[in-house]
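in:
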């Protein structure tokens, strides 16, 4: 995620030139639809998803763990925990107290020593991630690691309470053995509460050590224990993504090199994964979030697993030895770069290596996936720029392709869609015969509509483009008041017609960011919003879904008077053929306040009589979706062509998808 694009502000009204009515009557446009002279394949990776742990997207979001700081590893180990009946300057003889013990030889170094002096009064409470969301009739796995040190503590009692302190559900776990043991039990909840808390008490007095205190819904994606939140993954699955890019974003780089994302620390036993403060905890002055950490329960193995389940190509992005250039801009010396390069080589082995003969392939198998993940793409750096990046990219490219010549490498042109560093990066990467260059753009809706023809003149023989991060900003970049309204979504739809029309150059695209917790976000706008109980899809999400679900296999030409529609009189269009479904798909965007009528003339293409039409529009350009209603969502209808003619009216400010059987 870029925090440094040029800050801008825009003022747009319904009376501005772009959206004003230019005609008092509906004008008709005649479009020719035909095959491309030279066949152009739509890449399976054309439309994908970009995941970054920003806006509580992982812990507190996609990763379904409900306990914050479950193993006391935060920089402030008591984060998320309270002892309501414990006083600081007291021996607490009437209750008890918790002390943090540390073993620096372990990656999960902290654990809690709990001294219970009066079990009738001692209470340990966890607040969850802006509360704990629980559903009526649902079951939750409660587990913890415990060592019975001394005394007569016979049971650990857990209960969920609502915001008023009223009990929702409770369970008691008998403690029988000495030494560290894992205990598991189940809580079933009789009602729905958005912001519950977990309270722990003890039966008996004494001393115990506790770690990995966890509460997970049983109803996860694929019903996997310790897995992912079902409703959020379902929205990803519904996009039918061609790829999943992970784990970011600037989070790959870290504020410092020590805080960079290191994939090897995110695999293996979940309890042994080393905690790290999230880069976005202090990323923006308007949203400081000191309780934002990374447990890495969602690690690289889980990312690969999710990619496989979504039918998406995994696209891991790795540090190239440069911390975020908008933070410390710390560089690893060139002579010290080898460990970073080795991490990339080892990751490929982890994903693709033989489970019996390679170290990292064996680890993958030990984690439950003997079959390789078939990794084909890897990113070197996130959005670095300048000579330092090019110098490091060369080393990575040489080493990766020497050992794995079939792997495609994604490089980057920086955080901006133009400017000195953008031009420098492209010039250098083109000379190096780079394979795929990642471009990022966060800009105004007007910019997106004006740039629908951005790739019309890109070199067809040069590197391919990954439009890796983009989103229209209703107010300005890094502005907290940005909205996911219909204006931003419509402008993105217009821009996406240009991406698809240039599928010969553009091989990958993804909106960013993906997720945002309504009580824990740092950046707006975002594709999917959620709270502790439910989620909703934005207008922008439905634009992405319509393009991704209807990407086709081969590009067609759709032209007005011999020219592609890239904004002339506020009309945009692209067309594809889907040889698997035997259909033609035409996407048309009208950003005018006046409806348009189109007639389509298929040249050397025979179509059937049935027309499937999908409309996406809104009551106003300012329309948004929310948790209660999604007023902006597609509407589909089927009709028969009249007299064999393909005609349609395209409403004002709308995206229309027309689907015809190819015969």
């Amino acid at each position: 995620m870029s925090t440094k694009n040029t800050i801008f502000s825009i003022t747009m009204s319904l009376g501005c030139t772009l959206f004003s009515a230019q005609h008092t009557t509906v004008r008709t446009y005649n479009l020719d639809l035909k095959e491309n002279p030279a066949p152009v394949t739509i890449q399976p990776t054309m439309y994908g998803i970009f995941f970054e742990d920003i806006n509580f997207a992982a812990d507190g979001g996609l990763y379904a763990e409900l306990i914050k700081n479950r193993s006391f590893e935060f920089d402030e180990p008591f984060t998320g925990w309270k002892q309501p009946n414990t006083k600081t300057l007291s021996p607490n003889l009437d209750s008890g107290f918790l002390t943090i013990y540390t073993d620096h030889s372990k990656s999960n170094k902290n654990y809690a020593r709990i001294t219970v002096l009066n079990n009738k009064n001692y209470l340990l409470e966890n607040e969850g991630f802006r509360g704990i969301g629980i559903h009526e009739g649902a079951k939750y796995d409660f587990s913890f690691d415990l060592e019975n040190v001394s005394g007569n503590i016979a049971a650990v009692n857990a209960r969920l309470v609502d915001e008023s302190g009223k009990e929702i559900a409770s369970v008691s776990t008998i403690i029988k053995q000495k030494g560290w043991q894992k205990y598991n039990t189940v809580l079933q909840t009789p009602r729905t509460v958005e912001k519950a808390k977990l309270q722990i008490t003890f039966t008996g007095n004494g001393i115990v050590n506790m770690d990995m205190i966890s509460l997970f819904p049983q109803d996860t994606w694929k019903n996997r224990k310790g897995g992912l939140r079902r409703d959020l993954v379902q929205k990803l699955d519904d996009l039918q993504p061609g790829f999943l890019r992970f784990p970011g974003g600037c989070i790959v780089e870290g504020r410092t090199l020590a805080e960079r994302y290191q994939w090897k620390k995110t695999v293996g036993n979940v309890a042994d994964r080393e905690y790290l403060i999230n880069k976005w905890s202090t990323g923006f002055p308007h949203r400081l979030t000191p309780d934002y950490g990374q447990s890495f329960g969602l690690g690289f193995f889980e990312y690969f697993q999710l990619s496989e389940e979504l039918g998406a190509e995994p696209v891991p992005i790795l540090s190239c030895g440069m911390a975020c250039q908008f933070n410390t801009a710390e560089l690893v010396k060139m002579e010290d770069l080898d460990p970073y390069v080795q991490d990339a080589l080892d990751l490929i082995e982890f994903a693709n290596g033989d489970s019996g003969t390679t170290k990292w392939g064996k680890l993958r198998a030990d984690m439950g996936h003997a079959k390789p993940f078939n990794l084909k793409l890897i990113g070197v750096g996130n959005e670095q720029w300048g000579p330092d990046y090019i110098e490091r990219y060369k080393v990575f490219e040489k080493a990766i392709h020497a050992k794995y010549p079939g792997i495609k490498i994604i490089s980057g042109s920086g955080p901006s869609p133009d400017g000195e560093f953008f031009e420098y990066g492209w010039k250098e990467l083109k000379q190096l015969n780079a394979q795929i260059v990642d471009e990022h753009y966060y800009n105004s809706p007007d910019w997106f509509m004006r740039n629908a023809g951005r790739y019309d003149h890109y070199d067809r023989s040069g590197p391919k483009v990954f439009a890796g991060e983009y989103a229209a900003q209703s107010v300005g970049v890094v502005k907290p008041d940005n909205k996911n309204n219909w204006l931003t979504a419509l402008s993105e739809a217009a821009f996406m017609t240009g991406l698809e029309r240039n599928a010969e150059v553009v091989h990958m695209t993804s909106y960013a960011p993906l997720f945002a917790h309504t009580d824990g976000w740092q950046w707006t706008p975002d594709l999917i919003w959620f709270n502790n109980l439910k989620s909703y899809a934005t207008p922008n999400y439905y634009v992405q879904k319509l393009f991704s679900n209807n990407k086709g296999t081969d590009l067609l030409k759709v032209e007005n008077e011999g020219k592609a529609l890239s904004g002339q009189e506020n009309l945009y269009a692209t067309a594809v053929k889907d040889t698997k479904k035997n259909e033609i798909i035409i996407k048309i965007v009208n950003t005018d306040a006046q409806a348009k009528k189109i007639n389509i003339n298929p040249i050397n293409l025979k179509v059937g009589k049935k027309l499937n039409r999908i409309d996406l529009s809104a009551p106003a350009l300012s329309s948004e979706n929310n948790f209660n209603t999604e007023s902006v969502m597609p509407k589909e209808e089927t009709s028969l062509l009249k007299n064999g003619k393909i005609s349609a009216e395209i409403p004002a400010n709308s995206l229309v998808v027309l689907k015809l059987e190819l015969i």
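note: DSSP finds nine helices and 34 strands in the chain.
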